[in-house]
Q: What sequence folds into this?
């Protein structure tokens, strides 16, 4: 399965302090996942991508490669030099028949917006034509790859007013567009009679607000794992060298969301409940909203997550 992380802070962080140095960094997760859904798929070696913003209200930058993250020397070099207050990172694994190409590597970008996905749309090929037909000409032509994830991004963009021309969006607007995207995908799946489970762990940002989801089209199973940590600083301790989320005060100056915790300090990480949307506002307030639809279950049992088939 894929893995992703995102970081938002008032202070820039060196990418290496997220991507390569922590005990269970995203690079480690590319070949040593701990929270497996598909026990036969232990590697995330079908490419990777990182995205970051230099300043608010400016277009971010993305670097992708089809090489495994653990063997890409350029990634190591960039991570030791680049600092940013907002970072997206993704390592990819695919078993859904999509090509291993840079156009299929997350994250994707459209204007100021950046998007990535861990999971799959079950029965994607049965609703792909409907997804494409719903899009404006401009957004349809922007699709470069073949993945369900990029098509979901296109559907999301289609929910927004002038997604290419605007430099920022309110967090309420991004939240509503995300919910509308999930609702529309579910509607198409229902109409097509698709019975396969979808895992929709989406993340999107405009460089200031972040919206992400942990979601599954099943009312009993748990979704693909997703955790968050917040505090005053994410850094390594001088004596031990271990990375921790430091909580020097009650303020939230740093928020990290990741498919798996980056450290083994369990107290630093909180699981995001299944079928929940999380918002990080420009002021670093963290808000969680239950996604109340046909798959919402406040008494969801602790069953194993569903099999994941694509990313």
A:
């Amino acid at each position: 399965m894929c893995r992703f992380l995102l970081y938002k802070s008032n202070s820039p962080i060196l990418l290496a302090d997220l991507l390569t140095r922590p005990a269970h960094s995203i690079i480690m997760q590319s070949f040593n996942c701990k929270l497996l859904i598909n026990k036969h798929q232990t590697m995330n070696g079908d490419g990777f991508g990182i995205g970051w913003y230099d300043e608010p209200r400016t277009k971010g930058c993305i670097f992708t490669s089809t090489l495994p993250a653990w063997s890409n020397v350029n990634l190591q070099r960039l991570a030791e030099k680049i600092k940013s207050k907002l970072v997206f990172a993704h390592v990819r694994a695919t078993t859904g028949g999509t090509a291993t190409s840079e156009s299929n590597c997350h994250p994707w970008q459209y204007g100021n917006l950046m998007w990535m996905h861990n999971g799959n749309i079950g029965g994607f090929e049965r609703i792909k034509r409907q997804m494409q037909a719903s899009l404006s000409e401009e957004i349809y032509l922007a699709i470069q790859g073949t993945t369900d994830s990029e098509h979901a991004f296109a559907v999301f963009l289609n929910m927004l007013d002038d997604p290419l021309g605007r430099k920022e969006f309110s967090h309420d607007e991004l939240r509503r567009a995300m919910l509308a995207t999930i609702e529309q995908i579910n509607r198409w799946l229902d109409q097509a009679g698709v019975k396969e489970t979808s895992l929709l762990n989406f993340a999107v940002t405009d460089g200031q607000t972040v919206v992400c989801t942990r979601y599954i089209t099943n009312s009993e199973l748990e979704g693909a794992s997703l955790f968050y940590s917040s505090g005053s600083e994410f850094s390594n301790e001088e004596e031990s060298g271990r990375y921790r989320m430091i909580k020097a005060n009650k303020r939230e100056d740093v928020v990290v969301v990741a498919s798996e915790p980056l450290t083994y300090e369990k107290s630093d990480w909180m699981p995001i409940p299944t079928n929940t949307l999380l918002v990080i506002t420009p002021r670093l307030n963290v808000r969680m909203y239950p996604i109340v639809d046909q798959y919402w279950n406040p008494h969801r049992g602790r069953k194993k997550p569903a099999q994941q088939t694509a990313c």
In short: The chain is about 20% helix and 25% strand. The first helix runs from residue 16 to 19. Residues 159 and 177 are 5 Å apart (CA to CA).
